[in-house]
Amino acid sequence: MALLEVRELKKNFGETEVLKGISFDLNANEVLSIIGSSGSGKTTLLRCLNFLEHADHGCISVDGKRIYDAADPATRAPKAIHKNRTNFGLVFQSFNLFPQYSVLENLTLAAMLKAKESGEGKINKKELKEKLEQQGMELLTRIGLADKKDAYPCMLSGGQQQRVAIARALMLTPRILCFDEPTSALDPELTKEVLHVIKDLRAAGNTMIVVTHEMEFAKNASDKVIFMSKGVIEESGTPEELFGSPKSPVLRSFLMQ
Ligand SMILES: Nc1ncnc2c1ncn2[C@@H]1O[C@H](COP(=O)(O)OP(=O)(O)O)[C@@H](O)[C@H]1O
Ligand SMILES: [Mg+2]
């Protein structure tokens, strides 16, 4: 069984149909890259998976459990959404770190809130803080930024900020980590260091969905690729299939750009 099953997701903004029935599966430990022109609905799809938007139609299952069904009000209730969104993490194009907090605080704050909500925070606040700080330091060491734990986001390069944003998302231990063009605000050198971190996460077995303009990344660092065009999945398959023998004329012309 696939870890993630997405069926017939549709999303309209007013009269505009932005997602027109998106269906795909993703297995555990796999990386899915989503490519496609600007405006094809990639960000909207990630936002629907993370419940920042609510799909108008269709359903989302994780581990065989239906966590969202547009036709089932119970799965759309704020409490259900709040609980089920923890299946997903999202790293944005623009890092979105809290500027007033240090790197380590950026990592521990959201995790602290989550632990408090689950009741863990009541046990011993000091112990919990120490545990999360230790987890945060382990992640910072993994991404090569342990020495920046007390720095503020404005003191870091864009690439470093994005690596911290990735570590922050990992602190919440999502089942599926999503990236929305994580390197498009970065110059080529910094892009490399961020893609390197994502490749390391793949090697460590993380399940990820990466919306990207980096065709080399999609080709070499993913298990599946989806090409979106005008709100539909125009073509999907292995990187070899999509890049080696693209079938759809729209994909062919996209790849020639
Ligand atoms: N909140 C919104 N309100 C109205 N239209 C939106 C909104 N978000 C996205 N859109 C429209 O949906 C389409 C797809 O956008 P988006 O998902 O951002 O595409 P992509 O990420 O592939 O560039 C665009 O035409 C965009 O203008
Ligand atoms: Mg986008």
Unreliable parts: none
* Number of helices, counting only DSSP H or I runs of 4 residues or more: 11
Topology as a string of helices (H) and strands (E)? EEEHEEHHEHHHHEHEHEEHH
Q: How would you name the CATH homologous superfamily?
A: P-loop containing nucleotide triphosphate hydrolases
| Highest CATH level, the class | Alpha Beta
CATH level 3 topology: Rossmann fold
Describe the structure.
This protein has 257 residues and is α/β, with parallel strands linked by helices. It has one domain: Rossmann fold (3-Layer(aba) Sandwich), CATH 3.40.50. The protein is 41% helix and 25% strand. The chain contains 11 helices and 10 strands. The strands form 2 sheets. Strands 6-7-8-3-9-10 form a 6-stranded mixed β-sheet, sandwiched between helices. The radius of gyration is 19 Å and the shape is globular. The relative contact order is 0.17. The mean pLDDT is 95. Bound molecules: adenosine-5'-diphosphate and magnesium ion. Magnesium ion binds at residues 42-43, 180.
Question: Which descriptors would you attach to this protein?
Answer:
single chain; 257 residues; alpha/beta; Rossmann fold; six-stranded mixed sheet; 25% strand; binds adenosine-5'-diphosphate; binds magnesium ion
